[in-house]
Structures
1.
Amino acid sequence: MFCKNCGAPMKDGAKFCPKCGARQEAADQGRMEQASTAAPSPKKPDKPKKKFPIWLLIFPICLVIGILAALMAPKVLDAISGKGGTETEIAEDEDKNWDSGKKEDDEPEKKEETEASETETSAAETTPAQTAAETTAEQTTAAAPETTSAWLLDGSPDLTGYARVGIVQSGSTSNIEQENNQNGPEMAVDGDEVTSWQEGVEGPGIGETIYYKLDQEQPITYLTFKLGNWRNDKYFYGNNRPRTLTITLDDYSFQITFPAEQREYVVQVDPPYPASYIEYRIDDVYKGSSYDDTCIAELGMYCKVGE
């Protein structure tokens, strides 16, 4: 290396000339530039940029949604089920219901205690006259007649000592109109089995009635029946005849079913039932072979003579 100023030889890398003392920066700079030009330093590779993790954004959003859903779920369920009010209100309602039920349970006990007390007081205040009156009432109840019943007899009883009751009025819900025959309700109580009452509606006459008013209230014991048209066999089997009748004595009603044979039937009422009105209603019939009219030839109502 030589000094740029005086040309004196120098050590490589010296900054000042040992002879003239000149600074050797330019030389150093030139060498550096030459060295830089001759051997450029390699560039360091760029560091890859780090990507932002997306889960850090999704996780908070999901967390917020979950919290909101947990808070809203009870209200949504209440709206769907139709229940209103908070848990506190429901608990208060249950307490009220329990208190109400408890009061209701307590009230009968108090009422029973009050009634028991009143009964004891009443028993203590009962006078001999009241006791006698109660005894008389019990005896009267015991002496009351048994429940009336009615049934169809197997045969014909001996009606000696019994008489037919008097009839002042008869009627029916319908009767057939014929030019040469009378078929009204009076024909069933005229004592002639050849004549008969014949209902006059279309069909077998189910529900049609025949009724009678008596001259006075009588204790009815026996009822007799000749059912159907008894003019002859042709009309007996050709017309309908009652199979089942509902019979009413004033306010006492009962139902009797009769056999199909042509004979007089007797129904007994026991104990005898006092009545001033008797009604017969057709509930069922034996069908005739030729006609659809239901007939009753004769009816009898009997009470014991002298009663």
2.
Amino acid sequence: QEKETKKEQSEEALPMVPSRKGSSPNASGIKGDKTKQNDPDSPNEKEVEAEFLRLSLGFKCDLFTLDKRVKLEERSRNLAEEALKKEITDALKLLEALVPLCEEDNQAQEIIKKLQKSLQFLGQYAVRVASKAEMLGAINQESRVSKAVEVMIQHVENLKRMYTKEHAELEELKQVLLQNERSFSSLGDQDESTNKKLPNSLNFK
């Protein structure tokens, strides 16, 4: 009779032990979080990821042709500057050729001198315009790159947030598994001690 009573007590204690499949509240909470995690990402995160992939592919493609494009643009710029200088030089030579023909015309002489000064200023301004245009192009490129970097930073922040969430869920699941393992271990020790006491009770009878 004492044996049957102890057996009933051990059977009554079994439902109180959380199962390994997650019958405890913590386990069910993790399962719910996993369901949320498996849901599709929000449109904003999807757009950021798609833009990140597009920019990454663009940077990789541009990297292969960067040196060639730099050399090509430098060559085009040098050719344009040389052509402009040649045109200004030719114009100055034509004005110098007109000077002997207009020796007696003071008004024409004044006009020729003004044209010569204007052409000289034009050459100087052309150099300044080229420098400013190059600076403007660099600033525009910096603006485009800054927007691309902003997208990349946002993508990295999304990845960090996802990692933190998954890490917290794994830690919570680890704690639940440890609690279940301790519960089963204590239950096993209790059953073992009960089995050891049974022969003594039988001998007593």
3.
Amino acid sequence: MTEQQSRKRSFFRLIGRILLALAAVIGIVLIVSGVAVAATWGHFWDFRIGDPTSESCASCHVMEPYFNSQHDPVMLNSVHASHDVGCVDCHDYGLEHQINDTLAYLRNEYQEPLQRVEYGMDMCFECHVSYEQLARRTTDLGVTDAQAKGHDANPHQPPHYSNLECSTCHRIHRPSTLLCSECHSYQYRYPVVIEATEVSE
């Protein structure tokens, strides 16, 4: 073997070792990245794909106020939580959403506070069925005849409006309001504390 061939062979061995070392470094980086992503995924989503628990949602500090509202009796979310209605029962949180939110968190690109989302009545009626059924369930909310003054005081069967959007009065993660209280001083017996304006008639 000539000296030139020997040098050539040594050069290729060196290149081979460099490429092998580079491949090892890339492999280690990929493994560490994979473990980091898996750990992040596990931390946030309990390794549940497309079906996170409410606790999974709460693992992100941006979500804490929304999660905590299920323990606040002023919030309608607490009533839902007491009936085992969790975040994903109302919020569509599939795999794509989970991936996007995980990446946003890792890049520190999430919005805070989160943009408020309004849902239509169809979402509410998936569980609450219809205005008619709600009206039947709220025929007696403790409004006295003296308060009602001849009006039908059922908030789901008001004489002035029909088929109002649920969000006109109801909030999930914020205190609800009561449209009736803009004119009437009804004192409803209600499972959620409602912000109402004092009105004297």
